Amino acid sequence: MSNATHLAQRIQNLQPSAIRELLKHSKMPGVISLAGGIPSSDLFDKEGLSLATEKVMEEQFLDAFQYGLTEGNVLLRQQVVDVCRQRGITTQTDNLLITSGSQQALDLLMRTLVDEGDIFVVERPTYLATLQILGLTGADVKSVGSDERGMIVDELEALLKTTRIKGIYLVPTFGNPSGTTLSAERREKLVKLAAEYHFVIIEDDPYGAISFTDKKEKTLIQIATEQGAEDHVVYTSTFSKILAPGLRVGWIILPDWIKQKVAIIKQATDLHSNSFTQALAASYLTLSRLDKQIEVIRGAYKQKCLTLSALLEKELGEHIQFNQPVGGMFLWATFRYDFNTTAWLAKTLSQGVVYVPGEFFFNDNPDKRTLRFSYATASEEQLFEAVKRLKSAL
Ligand SMILES: Cc1ncc(COP(=O)(O)O)c(C=O)c1O
Q1: Is 102 in the pocket of ligand 1 (CB under 6 A)?
Q2: Which of 263, 273, 346, 393 would you label with 296, given CA atoms 20 to 30 Å apart?
């Protein structure tokens, strides 16, 4: 008998990420990648991070190298309260848990909330890694469609009339992969539905700060607080896209009814997040450089986004349609006719350019005409070359 029979049942059917397999070759020399959802490392604030590191050694040496609290570095949590306040969110250190990126936040939350067979709702399309996490919990995942105004909340309402759901996961602002933002009206309605039908909303907000305009939607947690429904929203965010992902520092705002349980799961998982990088993030925040850093990122991504959008419109506009992103890192496009973007990838790869085929972001009913481009890491020149290559691969 093979040793594989020792694997837990829920693990046995676990498949390696199809995207990883497809994009294995994307690191070959000369290949331009519009695939990865990673921030531009050219923009990392080297000077600020160096200063912050020195400050850690001088002022927080012991905290940075010792075991710490499961909930996270106290100074960092105080700073995160301020970051949240700037986003219109009122919270306090007691309701904050520092996590190893928002990826861990999502894992901890799903493990805390979901029993096998529970119905959990996601957007169509949604963030792939959340589908993986939900797969591990044994949730019965249902999806709700989205359009240029984000998740179609009326479709969710129709589902709620017949089905009891445990919760819903969404990236309401500059979503990954869709790039779209949930409209104000839909936000209000979604929070009302959560209170009426008694389910939990997980609001994943890694990109909200990276806006290309001055228009700002309220977060769902802010709306919930205004409506007296704050128990229904759990908000998570991260320093990955606005400072540096290698720090692995994110956070969750936890309503009282869930905070202790999530902390226990966190404790069982890793005791606490990395003490050094938490201290470093806290120290960086005391330098008051984050706002300027966010401005730099907004400006750079906006420019690249405009370049990519204009090129796609001009060179491929008769083949694909897309909404011009107004923030974040992603441009989501759909072929105007029946087309398989997964099959096309082999061709574009041979021309030296890659993207992520859209079908992997769907829990069900995949739309194979879709694809996701990220404009964050490529240079302007590479964007020109990438679109040229895409065109010749058609
Ligand atoms: C929607 C979304 N959520 C969560 C994450 C995880 O980010 P991190 O764990 O680096 O904070 C990402 C990263 O790409 C993301 O796009």
Answers
A1: yes
A2: 273
